[in-house]
Amino acid sequence: MKKNYLKRNFLLASLLLACSTIYAQGTLEMTRNGLPTNNGFGTSINPMEVTFLNDAANLSSFTANTPSLTLNLSFRNQVFTGFNYGTNSINTVQTTGLVFGAGPSLASDPAPQGATPYNRYNIIGQYGGNGGPQDPMFTSSPSAAPTPPSTTPSGSGIKVAGSNASTNGGFELFTTAQVLYNSANVIGSRVYFGDVVLKFNRPVTNPVIHIAGLGGSYRFLPAGLPDLVANYKNIFFATELELVNTGLTSTLMSGNQFVQLSGNNILNNNDVNPNGGSVLDAFETPFNNLGAATGSVRLNGTVQEVVYRVYLQSGTGSSAGYPWSAPGLDANGIPLITGAQRDPFTGDIWYISASMDKPTQQVSGNIYVDRDGLQDGDINKSAGVDNPKTNAEGFLYANLLNTAGQVVASTPVSSDGTYLFNNVPVGTYSVQLTVNASAGTYASPAIAPATVLPAGYLNTGEFVGNTPGNDGTVNGKSADVVVAAGDIKVEVNFGIERVPNSDPYTTGITTPALNSVITLNPSNPSPLPVLSGSDPEDQPISGSLANKAVQITTLPTNSQLLYNGIPVIAGQIIPSYNPALLQIKFTIATPAGQTEFFYAYVDAAGVPDPTPARYRVFWPNDGPLPIVLDDFTAVKINCNANLVWKTSSELNSDKFEVEVSTATNNEFTKLGSIAASGSSSTSKTYQFNFSMESGVIYYFRLKMFNKDGSFTYSIIRSLTCTDDRNDITIRPNPIADIFTIRGMQKGRNNISIYSNDGKLVKNQLITNTMGDVNISKLTPGVYLVRILNDNGSIETRRIVKN
Questions:
Q1: Is residue 162 within 8 Å of residue 329, measured between CB atoms?
Q2: What is the mean pLDDT of residues 741-748?
Q3: Phi, psi of 166 (to 5 degrees)
Q4: Residue 90: what pLDDT?
Q5: Average pLDDT rounded to a whole number, residues 204-226
Q6: Is 580 helix (H, G, I), strand (E, B) or coil?
Q7: Is the full-model pTM beyond 0.70?
Q8: CA 20 to 30 Å from 588, out of 141, 442, 462, 679?
Q9: CB 625 within 8 Å of CB 507
Q10: E-state strands within 244-346
Q11: Which long-range contacts (CB under 8 A, 24 or more apart) does 655-658 make?
């Protein structure tokens, strides 16, 4: 967005989706007079929705389309909140970095500037001057041949000028630079704002993205200088879009000379001055406003929900000394901007629209993660809440079967958990969900492969329709679907879920007395751990199964298992497990040195762990009880190794020797020795410190001795002391809402945040060497961040929440 002679201008961009089947059928498009259900002026962050019309001859002559196809547009993961756009008497002020229906205010508006309300749905790339997009910059149909970007583009199918009845429309959005006011970013910076989500009401194939005007500028005359072009300062920036969806590729269909497709990301290739005009406007004098990216990009594949990350990129040609919206000060600290020291309010205006080839007969559906199975008779929802979708990590295929049960078409399930069969001949079909693809065609049907799901997955049901129900047989095959001429059959849905996992335990205790009872809950007190487990849908991180369903699959042979004082029977399911009520009663006069049973976590779908876990308790028989090591961690504090270990029980224990090895020395040597407690049935904690040299990888283990001289080794933990520049970093710090951790070790990193008084206030798992953590709900103050890798290494950092 540029400000030129205090004149109101517009920064533009437009985004347009299309899906392809047969070009001769015409295209389904968003139109200026399409009357979206929530049309009106902004500013707004409420979701927008539009219904597509049919352009049968692809000549901008629109009629209603049946069945209805809609597109819902919304924001997700907004980074900038709590921002005041100022006051405006005719619009509702919003407080986020991304909004619908907004633009820079007039120069005559009072300070601080407010957002001018725009129509949230308008002509694609509506522009205040003559530098707006032109029809040949777009290609509406994914079936058309791509043409390279050019100063004389040759796309077709989109109309951006004319009457409302024959003009393509788009949602208007605004990426405001005002939220970066006086930020510490340098010229050339790139800042993430949030996500824009485009969701069709059914799967589509090969959607096309049309953009118009990704880029803008802000110009001002420094105070006290003559009003000459040479004296004006310039700030340039452009919105950029990064595709989140996996499993898709992109094709650049057409555009002007500034549009760039980098992988699946839509960018402006003018790094210096990505200005607001899509073409040169002779009336925009004395400044040239040309430099915006405009064009069309096709996504190749089937998808129902498209997600783009939205960034604002600063142009390197900015001459004001800062990259964003800021007043700037001269050497004496006086604001550089004229006009009663107005706060500059500017940003990038852009539009999202959609078009696609009108399909012939289709069959499509969704694969749901059915969290509660058929407990509620509905595979689409669980307890009234929409179930998420899945493609089981890319292993699923949908096979279309004829009435003979043969495969006539096969397609992989998309990353968003949808599938679609295009151009389906009239007839009766069913759909099979399996890991097995098929080469069968309508002309040459093939024998259907086995109905198999990936390891760890189960079918929960099938149903044709989006209302509660199922076809009565859980077998990975849908009921019959009759396709007539022109039919678009949707919601041929499947429910699947992953099985839970139960944690095994082996725990030592002192020799129990006959008929003594011990509770399987260490808080009672008791040395025995509580039953625990994990489930991808209900409890992704392993933890206590309190209030979960538990099945006792196999009973102990030399003791009795009690729940609430009543003997448990084999196969019994405890519906809401209470750890304080599960006990072992030792009933054998001559103990055998151990007892055990097997249990299974039963998830919300009623599915038990297919491989029950062993729960084993042992005690001394003819010899001393080994030391039972509960935990052993190695934490780097500066360049000191802090080794901490815990035992859950000890009997006749003597000492712990701490041993070390280096990356170049495979032999362990003794560092020191710490006396053990001797005998204990409660948790004991030990600690040992060691000063490390920089750049050396150390491997630590414990050698645990009993009184009789026998010993065992612990697991090995590793640490290294590295230069802080290669260490774990947290940025930014202090933090407003979100910080990024970089430099973590590979594997599972558990992030725990503690308040100043030692309370755990947030816990998050990151399975990568870097990741984002949102602390927007925490109160301002100082916190401790603890990073625990699954190899046992621990790092700690302090952060400040603003």
A1: no
A2: 85
A3: -130, 25
A4: 45
A5: 86
A6: helix
A7: no
A8: 679
A9: no
A10: 249-255, 259-262, 265-268, 293-300, 302-314
A11: 655/705, 656/686, 656/702, 656/703, 656/704, 656/705, 657/702, 657/703, 657/705, 658/688, 658/690, 658/700, 658/702, 658/703
